[in-house]
Amino acid sequence: MAEKVLVTGGAGYIGSHCVVELIEAGYQPVVIDNFSNAVREGDVPESIHRIEKLLDTSIEFHELDLLDQPGLEKLFKKHSFSAVMHFAGLKAVGESVEQPLRYYRVNLNASMNLLEVMQAHRVHNLVFSSSATVYGDPQHLPIDEQHPVGGCTNPYGKTKYFIEEMIKDHCKAEKDWNAVLLRYFNPIGAHSSGLIGEDPQGIPNNLLPYVAQVAIGRRKCLNVFGNDYDTLDGTGVRDYIHVVDLAKGHIAALKKLKEDCGCKVYNLGTGTGYSVLQMVKAMEKASGKEISYKIAPRRGGDIASCYADPRLAENELAWKAEFDLERMCEDLWRWQSMNPTGFSNGTAS
C-alpha cells in the first residue's frame, strides 16, 4: 500500500508540483490548503483538479487552515501519515515588510500547530519548505549550508529562520524525529504540460511571473527595482531553479528521512546566478515578445546577489538540478500562453 504523505499548502505553486512528483514516485498525497493563494474549482483547487486530469487519478483534498488546530487533529485521527511536507505559509518578501505581525502570526503559529499535532499522533518525519532568505545578505558566494543564518533582511525570511530553529530544537529533544529543511533559491518555470504553474493572486511579487504577464499583455511594463547594485549590470542577481527540479528534490528528501537522518539542511539551487536583465532577455527569447521595463528604486529587504552552492544535496541526496535557463523560460512561457489569466481560465484543454 502506498505511503500517505500530508502536503500542507499543496494547492500552491511549489506544493502542486510536488504533488505531481509524489504521485509519480508511488506515494499517496493528502493535500490541505486554505485557498489563500489558490483558485477554487468547486470544493477543490483548480491546480489539484488539473493534476487529477493530467495523471488520471483522484487526490484527497481538504480545505483546512493550519491555524485550525482542532481541524488538523481530526485529519491526523483519520489518516496514518508516513511523513509531512510543509509548504503552507505567507510568502511575499515585500508584503512581509509592510505586514510583519501578520507574517509572524500566520507562519509561526501554523507551524507550531503542525509540529504539535504531528508529535501527538507520532508522525515524526518532516520535509520543510525553507528559503535562502534565511542567509540574509551573503557574507560569501556561493552560499553553502555552513553560511551563517538569521541575519535576515525581511520578516518573511525571519519566519523561515524561526521555523527552522523550532524544528531543529524539536529534533534535538525528540530523538526519533527526522526532518529535512530545504532552503530554496528562486523557483521558476512550470510543468511541461502547461496545466499547472505559478498563478499569483493579484500583482505578482516575484520577477518571472511578472515578466511573463508583461509578455502576454496582462501588464504594461516591468519595474526593475534598482540598477545600482554591485553586479554585472547593476540589477539583482539570483539563482533560478526549475520548479520541477525543486519538486524532485523533495522526493529525494523523503528518501533521506528513511535513513533516520535526524535534522538535515540542504540548499536547492543550480549554483548559477542570473541578473534581472538577463532574465528579461531570456524570457524575450522564449516568448518571441519584447518585454518593456523601467528602472525603479530599490525595494526594502532586497540584496544584490544570492546564489547557491548545491553540492551537499548532490552528495547526500543524489539530487541535482537538470533544467537550464532556456528550458525554465520555455516551460514558463508555455504555462503563461496556455493560461493567459492563470487558473481562472478554467480547465486548460
UniProtKB/TrEMBL annotation:
<dbReference type="GO" id="GO:0005829">
    <property type="term" value="C:cytosol"/>
</dbReference>
<comment type="similarity">
    <text>Belongs to the NAD(P)-dependent epimerase/dehydratase family.</text>
</comment>
<keyword id="KW-0299">Galactose metabolism</keyword>
<keyword id="KW-0520">NAD</keyword>
<dbReference type="InterPro" id="IPR036291">
    <property type="entry name" value="NAD(P)-bd_dom_sf"/>
</dbReference>
<comment type="pathway">
    <text>Carbohydrate metabolism; galactose metabolism.</text>
</comment>
<comment type="function">
    <text>Catalyzes two distinct but analogous reactions: the reversible epimerization of UDP-glucose to UDP-galactose and the reversible epimerization of UDP-N-acetylglucosamine to UDP-N-acetylgalactosamine. The reaction with UDP-Gal plays a critical role in the Leloir pathway of galactose catabolism in which galactose is converted to the glycolytic intermediate glucose 6-phosphate. It contributes to the catabolism of dietary galactose and enables the endogenous biosynthesis of both UDP-Gal and UDP-GalNAc when exogenous sources are limited.</text>
</comment>
<protein>
    <recommendedName>
        <fullName>UDP-glucose 4-epimerase</fullName>
        <ecNumber>5.1.3.2</ecNumber>
    </recommendedName>
</protein>
<keyword id="KW-0119">Carbohydrate metabolism</keyword>
<dbReference type="GO" id="GO:0003978">
    <property type="term" value="F:UDP-glucose 4-epimerase activity"/>
</dbReference>
<dbReference type="GO" id="GO:0003974">
    <property type="term" value="F:UDP-N-acetylglucosamine 4-epimerase activity"/>
</dbReference>
<feature type="domain" description="NAD(P)-binding">
    <location>
        <begin position="6"/>
        <end position="331"/>
    </location>
</feature>
<dbReference type="InterPro" id="IPR016040">
    <property type="entry name" value="NAD(P)-bd_dom"/>
</dbReference>
<dbReference type="Pfam" id="PF16363">
    <property type="entry name" value="GDP_Man_Dehyd"/>
</dbReference>
<dbReference type="InterPro" id="IPR005886">
    <property type="entry name" value="UDP_G4E"/>
</dbReference>
<comment type="subunit">
    <text>Homodimer.</text>
</comment>
<dbReference type="GO" id="GO:0033499">
    <property type="term" value="P:galactose catabolic process via UDP-galactose, Leloir pathway"/>
</dbReference>
<keyword id="KW-0413">Isomerase</keyword>
